[in-house]
């Protein structure tokens, strides 16, 4: 089996949190959100290498307030780009002899080992995979005038999470192409779908939430107290 690498993106701002601190450094139960994310990956036997992608201005802060303070080791720290896809591409370019790569949002602090291990398995089997959950709410397609146009069957919908998992040769090729062609994507599954690749969607978890708003912190506080990794 080839090497399995994880890219953790830690470039989120605290704008919607109403915080001047980047959200991955906001503390929950006395630990930064990024602590929980990194701890799971470092303790997962499936992961051989971790690349942490950060804004240049926050690298030293992260070293002192997360990595050194909580004795967390990553393989490399890479400077992020202006957009999320640029940060991913920067992380992909430093990998060597990588077979499978997992790309994860640093602001999803409660990803489980099961999700990570399943992602590696399905990426090897299908080439690309991502966890997801069925939306709890009914989803409406909204027209330009503001009226509902139709209601998709919720059973066919999937709210996609991370880590998004790929054969390295596939995802790096697609990122090279979108960079050359100036294509904007909202996540990495979209980057490969544009070029005709398929993504296998496997079962995620509702607790694998992306912390984005102050309301998310309420649930994050509860989850952190139940978190099994110390």
TrEMBL record:
Site (Transition state stabilizer): 16, 23
Reaction catalysed by this enzyme: 2-C-methyl-D-erythritol 4-phosphate + CTP + H(+) = 4-CDP-2-C-methyl-D-erythritol + diphosphate
Enzyme Commission identifier(s): 2.7.7.60
Keywords: Isoprene biosynthesis, Nucleotidyltransferase, Transferase
Pathway: Isoprenoid biosynthesis; isopentenyl diphosphate biosynthesis via DXP pathway; isopentenyl diphosphate from 1-deoxy-D-xylulose 5-phosphate: step 2/6
Keyword Disulfide bond: no
One GO-annotated biological process of the protein: isopentenyl diphosphate biosynthetic process, methylerythritol 4-phosphate pathway
A molecular-function term among this protein's GO annotations: 2-C-methyl-D-erythritol 4-phosphate cytidylyltransferase activity
Residues the record marks as site: Positions MEP for the nucleophilic attack: 154, 210
Protein role: Catalyzes the formation of 4-diphosphocytidyl-2-C-methyl-D-erythritol from CTP and 2-C-methyl-D-erythritol 4-phosphate (MEP).
HAMAP family referenced in this protein's UniProt entry, alphabetically: IspD (MF_00108)
Assigned protein family: Belongs to the IspD/TarI cytidylyltransferase family. IspD subfamily.
Name of the molecule in the record: 2-C-methyl-D-erythritol 4-phosphate cytidylyltransferase
């Amino acid at each position: 089996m080839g090497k399995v690498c994880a890219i953790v993106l830690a470039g989120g701002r605290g704008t919607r949190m109403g915080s001047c601190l980047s959200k991955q450094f906001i503390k929950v139960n006395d630990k930064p959100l990024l602590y929980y994310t990194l701890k799971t990956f470092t303790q997962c036997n499936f992961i051989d290498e971790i690349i942490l992608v950060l804004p240049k201005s926050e690298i030293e802060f992260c070293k002192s307030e997360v990595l050194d303070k909580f004795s967390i080791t990553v393989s490399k720290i890479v400077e992020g780009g202006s957009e999320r896809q640029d940060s991913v591409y920067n992380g992909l370019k430093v990998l060597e002899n990588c077979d499978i790569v997992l790309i994860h949002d640093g602001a999803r602090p409660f990803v489980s080992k099961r999700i990570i291990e399943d992602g590696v398995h399905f990426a090897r089997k299908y080439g690309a995979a991502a966890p997801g959950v069925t939306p709890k709410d009914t989803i409406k397609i909204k027209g330009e005038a503001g009226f509902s146009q139709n209601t998709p069957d919720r059973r066919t919908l999937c709210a996609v999470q991370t880590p998004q998992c790929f054969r390295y040769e596939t995802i790096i090729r697609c990122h090279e192409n979108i960079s050359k062609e100036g294509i904007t994507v909202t996540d990495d599954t979209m980057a490969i779908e544009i070029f005709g690749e398929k993504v296998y969607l496997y079962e995620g978890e509702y607790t694998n939430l992306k912390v984005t708003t102050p309301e998310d912190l309420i649930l994050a506080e509860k989850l952190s107290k139940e978190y099994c990794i110390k």
